[in-house]
Amino acid sequence: EVQAREGQAVRRGQCLLMVEAMKLQHELCAGMDGVVRRIAVRPGDPVSPRQVLLELDPLPPSDPDPADAQA
Description:
mainly beta, 3-stranded antiparallel β-sheet, two-stranded antiparallel sheet, 1 helix
């Protein structure tokens, strides 16, 4: 089950995919804040170990708040 879409901004820990293996469901979650660049699988596709399922680009660092710089 794909729970994200290409171009979507996601947060670290957000579930992106559900993969079934040996009758168990496994959540695959974002390891960082980012934007989904590409989803390489579709629901029902068989997958292999080390296969790329989804590509995630890191979010650029946010600009510091100018009010924080004056503190």
